Amino acid sequence: MKSPCLLVFLLLLEHSAVPAIAGAWPGSCKTWLVQSIPTDMPLLTRVPGVLSSGEVLRWMAGNATRRLDVIAQYWQFLAQPENPKSGDYGFSEADLDEFGANEGRAVYKALEDAAERMVDIRLLQHSGVFPDFTQEPSDLASGKPNVHNVTLLLGDWWGSGIVHAKVWISDSRDIYIGSANNDWKSLTQVKEVGIYLKGCPVIAKHLEVYFDNLWTLSSLNSTEHTRTVWDKTWQASRKVPCWSHFIPFKQRCRSPLRHYLEVPQVVGYPIITDPDMFHVPIVMTGYNISSSLPHPEYYASYLSFAPPELLFDRIQADEQAWVETIKSVRYGGSVRISSMDWLGQSRYTKQTIYWSSLSSAISEVIFSKNARVNVLIAYWAHNLEGTDQHLKSLLYSNILCKSSKYNKCHGKVSVKYYRVPGFNKTGAALINGTATGNTYPAFTRVNHGKYAVSDVRAHVGTSNLVWDYFYTTAGVGFGTYHPGVVAQLQDIFDADWNSPYAVPVEPIAAA
């Protein structure tokens, strides 16, 4: 018989022992990073253990047993080579097979099968894109009492903005958050990054609240629930929901949304000093990391949402999550940022709004933490005007860092454009019966991922780095301190950064 002291020692040993990360903890979330890699990129190094976007979306639809919620900007899983209004027009079936259009057909078929299995499906999207807008979700819902489809126009609520989040929630347990649109081209012709969480009901529950809030907006009369106010923070006249933080507290209406976050006084976004963190164990099954890591439940993770009027409980704003990911860098450490768009201003508002949140955060860690920051921005057929100037202004931080002999600043920011081969040869193959010479369908061949990763924290989101995406547009982010996610996301970035497809942005010459 063991002595009481020995029993206590054995119990302590049992609870302090650290098992291999590959082993599943009871109640743990299984996690994978997800990518779409365009065809014809032979010089891009593949990162082991990363899943493909098409497979993940097909699995989520195929494995749903009772409920599937989908937030999308637009739908085009089915190619339209015979539609003269489509960017797919004129390409042959052989071309489409080579492009990987079958990936989209497979996902759409999985959704049809889920509907036939009587899975309760809710589809929420923006009005879509030309030429068929919301035809596919409308077809999925037609004649099926278990499939519900709504279109939400955020411009009615904020004056501009769209549903830009790309989120799938299956059976209130499995989640996809990332940059991939519900479009066959997003699966094989656009470079995307996302995260797949399996068996995570705690996180899924919070995502469902956000989904429900968007769903509620679609049924409300925006005219009765909006105000036009002078926004002192952004020095612009803006249309906002009547419960907005940007309306004086005593003049606000009562929010019709669940668990709305009330903040009496706000400058800009409601910065939450202690945002909700999930402490569920996260296990990466597709990436080898050291078994000497601490218990996985100690790695906090979080969700973030935009715009601010949709925040609830203690969930942080999407802008705050990006800023704090940058500022989480260790002294002398590194930050990696990837986005399709970068502008230090608004793009779609009537009055242009200057926005320096992310560029300021980068400059701060360069100065105070001697951090190395690498920024990778897409270069493609539809670059936003002003991108080059804003990126070069970011590089000016390097000059300021060395501007005085009294500065103890040794950090640096580097910026590259990412050029997917064929980015300048996209569009319909035929226009008015004449061959265009385009090699790929329209709106393809672009680095579309939106993520940031320091040496301790990873953030995967749906928002481009432009003011509008944080203040008038529906966006979702997921972040974690799990070292496996951090390391693998760094590997994804480094594969892009070190590839021949990444080209340095030249700085402004010092005076």
TrEMBL record:
<protein>
    <recommendedName>
        <fullName>PLD phosphodiesterase domain-containing protein</fullName>
    </recommendedName>
</protein>
<feature type="domain" description="PLD phosphodiesterase">
    <location>
        <begin position="443"/>
        <end position="469"/>
    </location>
</feature>
<dbReference type="InterPro" id="IPR001736">
    <property type="entry name" value="PLipase_D/transphosphatidylase"/>
</dbReference>
<feature type="domain" description="PLD phosphodiesterase">
    <location>
        <begin position="159"/>
        <end position="186"/>
    </location>
</feature>
<dbReference type="InterPro" id="IPR050874">
    <property type="entry name" value="Diverse_PLD-related"/>
</dbReference>
<dbReference type="InterPro" id="IPR025202">
    <property type="entry name" value="PLD-like_dom"/>
</dbReference>
<feature type="signal peptide">
    <location>
        <begin position="1"/>
        <end position="22"/>
    </location>
</feature>
<dbReference type="GO" id="GO:0003824">
    <property type="term" value="F:catalytic activity"/>
</dbReference>
<keyword id="KW-0732">Signal</keyword>
<dbReference type="Pfam" id="PF13091">
    <property type="entry name" value="PLDc_2"/>
</dbReference>
